[in-house]
């Protein structure tokens, strides 16, 4: 399979002006393939040669300007177009295309709950070629007319409003000029809830088996959609540019969502069939806001080449969180951003595979796909938040609106974006961009407090090169309650400083980046650190506490704080925490990193016991029913860290946790998976639970449980399903991988460690980027933290021809493994 290079794209864009696609899809031809006919009308600016991309099961015929071309000239998904003359042309292709089970191209899913089948497209980054022939690059925008023949009883959704003609074919309204990767179709017997807002059709859609759950949340989803739509029209001068706004919750979706104009697709886990916390609802609201922001930044104005993907994702990430805070009932999403998303960015930015927010070396589409990570999303959004604070919101939005006006329905680059911002301010935006967008790594900021004559000054020691506009919080002990801290003041700082800043008497706690406006690791002076040991939970603001927990997390990862000390701090302060995002983030890090990787095996049981006691404290605190989300979080994590089966097995038998909650499907499968790890269940129990819950989620739960059984035959079967057969869908593959590796079963699966490096290579080459990425993330034997494993993995990287997606995943995992070894070594010497 070929990849498109930047040079090839530039040459083709110079040659071609693409006007219109007419695409006809026939979804009635069977379970394996579908028909695809494409007419492309375009002009050549001069005489020349080029090519069109298509990945067919069979290319039946091709004509250019009425003259047949030989389908056999198709090579590596490219059909050459030789000897084009300057002027207008019409290209027609008739092909048979394959359905996908990996979430790429046209994904086909049959719901095990009722046997209904659903199809949807996911064409990012270069998968439009799996659906129809195209000049597949983002700067060759065109109008798209789409017609779909679908089975009787189905409805078809697309980028524009669809209508069913008399002959049964569904026809979508022509789009404005959009990029090829943004074309979208979703077909099946959808359950739909439709309304209008400001004269625009709104719709939300899901599988029929999820209809009761969507209906229960429909008003919340639509209210958030309306609120975001209205808020964006207050911010942006350009009106919403498409003819409708549909949101389809689709099965087995690889990403969180996709910003197809007029038809946003979401993973249908956002249709909640089991209890969730309010923070999880907030995340859904943020994703809705994020995807709607893309309608302007990404869809109306699109990147010219994939090196500027951050212009799409960083902007939508920033606007998603900011607009959620401004327009919905979820007023504090930046705390969750700090706990989860920003930590994702910090991790990615400290690996050997890091890259600038705006990289300059994205030479082809395979390289571009690797940049969809915590840097393009979280670091980029943090940079934009820093920029908005530095410029002021008025000038920031003025620059954004200039950008939309200049480039609507076109393409733009980083230079264009900076020019638009510069037009709205006297500040040196270009220098800011060089410092923030063209550099890699995370700066570290450490306060230096010096006392003289009864007063103190603050200097900030910066390890790194970026300028920072931030706030320092000065906190004193509450005279009425020594365990509480009160804010004395917040002072604005620009780093590097011109001179030390007077701060009066020494505070009990000095916190850099209070408010989380910049992107940097922060450290504490000795007195502040001692204050946190006793009074962290006494800080008044959840975002402030999140910043502290992030700093402690960074200190553990850097070997400056012993993992056991982090657990002690969590044990002391988390039972009094009220913010769900903070509780979830701390417990996830304490379990997934500290207990499972950073501590040696002999210390893991004590760590699990500490976490069990912590969760029990949270359960006792929530017995009054006033904090259902906190209680649910505690229940989930107590299940995850259970070292003995008795308690959770009793919950499963009773169908409830004493004092609540009752066990819904998610909790039942979670308990059963943990019982499988502990050897306290069997295939008969798994089959019985699957009979009770035969849904798609139930199928995934059963696959996870079966792979987790501490039985040699179960492990052999799971490994064969993942690496030998190709029948598993993307979700069933991931579920099986999640069950396979368990710290409690190290000796049972040790022989599979070298097999991973053998079998994953052929799997990735055979099944493509989505499965390769899943293998690198979920199949990697991360719990085997030893130098021999590190050498084995490095030898694979050095001596094996890995696909780009797998290479990136393995490289990142090996860096995490090396970090875990360093953490263990430093902790042993402390």
From TrEMBL:
Enzyme Commission no: 3.4.11.2
Location of the ERAP1-like C-terminal domain: 510-818
GO cellular component term of the entry, any: membrane
Start and end residues of each Aminopeptidase N-like N-terminal domain: 86-182
Catalytic activity as recorded in UniProt: Release of an N-terminal amino acid, Xaa-|-Yaa- from a peptide, amide or arylamide. Xaa is preferably Ala, but may be most amino acids including Pro (slow action). When a terminal hydrophobic residue is followed by a prolyl residue, the two may be released as an intact Xaa-Pro dipeptide
Domain of life of the organism encoding this protein: Bacteria
Gene Ontology molecular function terms on file: alanyl aminopeptidase activity; metalloaminopeptidase activity; peptide binding; zinc ion binding
Entry keyword set: Aminopeptidase, Hydrolase, Metal-binding, Metalloprotease, Protease, Zinc
InterPro entries (UniProt xref): Aminopeptidase_N-like_N, Aminopeptidase_N-like_N_sf, ERAP1-like_C_dom, Pept_M1_aminopeptidase, Peptidase_M1, Peptidase_M1_aminopeptidases, Peptidase_M1_dom, Peptidase_M4/M1_CTD_sf
One of the GO BP terms on file: proteolysis
Co-factor(s): Zn(2+)
Span of domain Peptidase M1 membrane alanine aminopeptidase: 222-436
Family: Belongs to the peptidase M1 family.
Protein name: Aminopeptidase N
Top-level taxonomy: Bacteria, Bacillati, Actinomycetota, Actinomycetes, Kitasatosporales
């Amino acid at each position: 399979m070929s990849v498109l290079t930047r040079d090839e794209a530039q040459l083709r864009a110079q040659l071609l002006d693409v006007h219109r696609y007419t695409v006809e899809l026939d979804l009635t031809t069977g379970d394996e393939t579908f028909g695809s006919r494409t007419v492309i009308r375009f002009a050549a600016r001069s005489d020349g040669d080029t090519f069109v991309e298509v990945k067919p099961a069979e290319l039946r015929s091709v004509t250019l300007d009425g003259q047949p071309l030989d389908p056999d000239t198709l090579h590596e998904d490219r059909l050459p177009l030789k000897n084009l003359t300057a002027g207008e042309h019409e290209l027609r292709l008739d092909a048979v295309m394959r359905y996908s089970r990996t979430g790429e191209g046209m994904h086909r899913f049959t719901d095990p709950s009722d046997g209904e089948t659903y199809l949807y497209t996911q064409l990012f980054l270069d998968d439009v070629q799996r659906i129809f022939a195209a000049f597949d690059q983002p700067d060759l925008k065109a109008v798209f007319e789409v017609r779909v023949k679908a089975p009787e009883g189905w409805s078809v959704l697309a980028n524009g409003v669809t209508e069913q003609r008399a002959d049964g074919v569904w026809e979508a309204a022509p789009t404005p000029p959009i990029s090829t990767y943004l074309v979208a179709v979703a077909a099946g017997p959808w359950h739909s809830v439709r309304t209008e807002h400001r004269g625009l059709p709104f719709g939300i859609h899901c599988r029929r088996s999820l209809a009761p759950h969507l209906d229960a949340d429909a008003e919340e989803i639509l209210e958030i959609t309306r609120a975001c739509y209205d808020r964006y029209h207050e911010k942006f001068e350009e009106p919403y540019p498409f003819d409708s706004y549909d949101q389809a919750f689709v099965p087995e979706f690889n990403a969180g969502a996709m910003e197809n104009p007029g038809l946003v697709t979401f993973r249908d886990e956002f249709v909640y069939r089991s209890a969730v916390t309010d923070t999880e609802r907030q995340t859904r609201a943020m994703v809705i806001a994020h995807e709607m922001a893309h309608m302007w930044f990404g869809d109306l104005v699109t990147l010219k080449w994939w090196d500027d993907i951050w212009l799409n994702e960083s902007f939508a990430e920033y606007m998603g969180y900011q607009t959620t805070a401004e327009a919905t009932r979820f007023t504090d999403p930046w705390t969750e951003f700090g706990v989860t998303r920003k930590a994702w960015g910090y991790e990615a930015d400290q690996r050997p595979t890091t890259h600038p927010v705006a990289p300059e070396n994205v030479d082809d589409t395979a390289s571009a796909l690797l940049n969809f990570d915590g840097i393009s999303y979280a670091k980029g959004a943090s940079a934009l938040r820093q920029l908005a604070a530095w410029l002021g919101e008025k000038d920031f939005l003025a620059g954004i609106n200039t950008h939309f006006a200049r480039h609507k329905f076109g393409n733009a680059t980083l230079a264009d974006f900076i020019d638009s911002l510069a037009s709205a301010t006297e500040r040196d935006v270009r220098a800011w961009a060089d410092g923030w967008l063209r550099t890699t790594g995370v700066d570290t900021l450490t306060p230096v407090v010096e006392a003289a004559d009864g007063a103190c000054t603050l200097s900030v020691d910066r390890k790194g090169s970026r300028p920072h506009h931030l706030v320092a919080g000065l906190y004193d002990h509450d005279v009425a309650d020594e365990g509480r801290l009160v804010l004395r003041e917040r002072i604005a700082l620009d780093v590097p400083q011109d001179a030390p800043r007077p701060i009066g008497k020494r505070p009990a706690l000095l916190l850099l980046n209070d408010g989380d406006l910049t992107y940097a690791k922060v450290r504490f002076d000795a007195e502040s650190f001692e204050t946190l040991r006793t009074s962290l939970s006494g800080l008044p603001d959840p975002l402030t506490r999140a910043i502290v927990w992030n700093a402690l997390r960074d200190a553990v990862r850097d070997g400056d704080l012993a993992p056991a000390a982090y657990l002690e701090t969590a044990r002391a302060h988390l039972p009094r925490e009220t913010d769900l995002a903070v509780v979830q983030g701390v417990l996830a890090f304490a379990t997934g990193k500290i207990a499972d990787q950073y501590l040696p095996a002999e210390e893991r049981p004590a760590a699990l016991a500490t976490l069990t006691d912590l969760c029990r404290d949270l359960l006792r605190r929530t017995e009054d029913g006033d904090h259902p989300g906190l209680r649910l979080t505690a229940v989930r994590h107590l299940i995850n860290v259970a070292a003995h089966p008795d308690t959770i097995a009793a919950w499963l038998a009773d169908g409830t946790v004493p004092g609540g909650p009752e066990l819904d499907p998610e909790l039942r499968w979670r308990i059963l998976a943990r019982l499988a790890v502990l050897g306290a269940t069997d295939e008969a129990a798994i089959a019985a639970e699957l009979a009770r819950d035969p849904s798609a989620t139930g199928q995934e739960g059963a696959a996870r449980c079966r792979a987790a059984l501490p039985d040699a035959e179960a492990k052999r079967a799971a490994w064969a399903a993942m690496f030998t057969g190709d029948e598993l869908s993307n979700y069933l593959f991931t579920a099986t991988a999640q069950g396979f590796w368990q710290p409690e079963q190290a000796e049972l699966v040790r022989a599979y460690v070298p097999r991973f490096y053998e079998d994953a290579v052929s799997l990735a080459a055979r099944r493509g980027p989505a499965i390769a990425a899943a293998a690198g993330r979920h199949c990697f034997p991360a719990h085997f933290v030893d130098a021999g494993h590190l050498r084995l993995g490095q030898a694979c990287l050095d001596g094996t021809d890995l696909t780009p997606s797998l290479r990136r995943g393995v490289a990142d995992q090996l860096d995490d493994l090396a970090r875990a070894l360093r953490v263990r070594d430093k902790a042993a010497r402390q």
